[in-house]
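User: Before I run my own analysis I want an independent prediction to cross-check against. Here's the chain; please return only the structure tokens and, at the end, one sentence I can use as a sanity check.
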Amino acid sequence: MIVTLPRTGTVLLALALSIALACIVGRYHYIVDVIAGAALALAIWAAAAAAGL
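Assistant: Structure tokens:
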């Protein structure tokens, strides 16, 4: 069963985006690292959704 919490999701998305931006601006990672991390997160989310988790 998937429970959606729109406000929580919005807050967590803003947090994730700010961390990604800070990694680029702070020169801790290249932009390709952030893109790869986002792609990996989407792939894991899709796999979990397909598995019914």
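Sanity check: Residues 6 and 12 are 10 Å apart (CA to CA).
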